[in-house]
Amino acid sequence: MSKRSVLTCAVALVAAACAPDLVLFAQGAEPAAASSGVGVAGWSIITAGFALAFAAGLGALGQGKAVASAAEAIARNPGATGDIRGALLLGLVLIESLVIYVLLISLLLFFFNPFK
């Protein structure tokens, strides 16, 4: 079996195992204002934190792969060092800008509640 099919089966099994529990989270008969759980603003902050963690982690992995590939390319062809360095810096800037965009959105959700 390929890794993709194993991952798909694992996700399907987890979703099937959690499906009966979803009924527990249905809204009850009491009014929404009386509930004492975490509101939409709280969930947006939690979601922003997870998004920032994923963006930072995957951005770091992407930057590491880019630097490793650039070092390998320079080792194979030292004459093209300038071109490779320029492409590397452009790629690193674009990867880092995506992480900064997620940070900006996370800070906006944290400090300015759009759900009021």
CATH topological fold name of the domain at 37-111: F1FO ATP Synthase
Assigned CATH architecture of the domain at 37-111: Up-down Bundle
> How is the main sheet built?
none
By secondary-structure content and strand pairing, the structural class works out as mainly alpha
Which key features would you list for this structure?
116 residues, F1FO ATP Synthase, single chain, mainly alpha
Describe this structure in words.
The protein is built from three helices and no strands. It is mostly helical. It has a domain at 37-111: F1FO ATP Synthase, CATH 1.20.20. The longest helix is centred in the middle third of the chain and has 37 residues, at 40-76. The model has no long low-confidence stretch (mean pLDDT 80). The protein has helices spanning 3-18, 40-76, 81-111.
Describe the structure concisely for a colleague.
This protein has helices at 3-18, 40-76, 81-111. It has 116 residues and is an all-alpha fold.
Topology, please?
Elements: H1 3-18, H2 40-76, H3 81-111
Helix pairs in contact: 2-3
